[in-house]
Structure formats: C-alpha cells, structure tokens
Amino acid sequence: MRTLISTAFVSLDGVVEAPGGEPGYRNAGWTFKDVEFLPEAFEIKGREQKEATAMLLGRTSYEAFSPVWPDMEDFADYKVMPKYVVSTTLTEDDLVSNWGETTILRSLDDVAALKETEGGPIIVHGSASLNQGLSDAGLIDRYHLLVFPLLLGAGKRLFSTTDKDTQKLRLVEHEAYANGLQKNVFDVVH
After folding, report:
1. Domain Bacterial bifunctional deaminase-reductase C-terminal spans what residues (predicted)?
2. Contacts of 61 (CB under 8 A, 6+ apart)
3. Domains recognised in the chain with CATH numbers
4. φ, ψ (nearest 5 deg) of residue 38
5. Who contacts 172 (Cβ-Cβ below 8 Å, separation ≥6)?
6. Strand 102-105 vs strand 182-188: parallel, antiparallel, or unpaired?
7. Is the dihedral of CA 84, 70, 91, 88 positive or negative?
C-alpha cells in the first residue's frame, strides 16, 4: 500500500488558507510576510520532492498551482511526477498540458484505490477540504507540518470539526527554528 502524506504550512491555530498570498483571504501571504525566512526550516520541502512519487490535489489547489508551478525551478521535480486531482467538476479540458500526466479522481474511494496500487509515497499539497475528507476517511498516513508562530483566527483549517473517534499520531521527527517555526512529522497510527 502506498503512503499518503499530507504536507502543509499551518498557523498555530490550524489555519492553512492562502499561505503564499492567494487572493481573497485577509491574511494572505502569512508565511513570508510575518515570519523571518530561514532556509533550514524549509529543508523538508526539498526532501518531499525527492521522496514522493505522485502528487494529489483538490480542484482549488490544482487551479491555483497548475498555472504557476510547472515553470518554477523550485518545483521542477513535481513537473514530471504523476498528478491526481480529486474533483467532481473538473474535466480533461480543464487540465494544463505542461505539467505532466494528470488523472482526475472523482471520489475518496478512488483515492483509496490509488493507495492500493504499486508505487511510492503520494504527497498532498494545499487542498484544505480534501485534507479534511482524507483525514476523516482514515486515508492519510503521515503529516509533514511546518507550524508558524501565528494566530490567524478565521480561515480554512487543515483538520475538520467532524465529531469522530480519536485519531492517534506518533511524532517521528521534530525541530524548532530560531524564527519560531516548528517542523512536526507525524505518522498516523492506524
């Protein structure tokens, strides 16, 4: 079974919305406007590109990333990697042609079936709603979280507010940085 890894920039109060400056959110760009940049805190981002063998996105994140990431040197390893977009509305005509093989999945059952295929880890970027559904369905195996020392209040959250049984996590990697960022890598105990 393939490992599904959720990776996120998250505020201390759980917000993941618009970390890079996407329009429509009053705190957009909070990852670079409000915290000093330390390259060592982002080492995990380069590692993710080397270790992942596929990327999974929700429709909104796909529509935000696909016009930009294919031409960014920082994300060169993702360009050639197979991508899967979970969407009930996206069509083949909506996919960009310069970002490698992309497959549309229509449900969380399709994601569960993808996890059963041969291959290495699948990384989930952005995709707040998708992350909530994947977590609630027990499909996420690992979290790579860069926690920013900010309280943003309102905004899309990484975790749902669904009333569910406790989900135990095991801390497998942790580091704190001089700028207040914390790297937390958790395995989900299934």
Report:
1. 2-182
2. 125, 126, 127, 130
3. 4-189 (3.40.430.10)
4. -125, 115
5. 142, 185, 186, 187
6. unpaired
7. positive
DSSP helix/strand/coil, 118: coil
Inform me whether the pLDDT recorded for 34 exceeds 90.
Answer: no
Alpha-carbon Rg of the chain, whole angstroms?
Answer: 16
Helices 108-115 + 128-136 axis angle, to 10: 70
Predicted pLDDT at 21: 87
Q: Which tokens belong to 175? A: 């580091």
* Mean pLDDT value across the chain: 96
C-beta atoms surrounding 147 within 10 Å: 17
CA distance 22 to 17: 8
Pairwise CA distance, residues 78 & 22, whole Å: 20
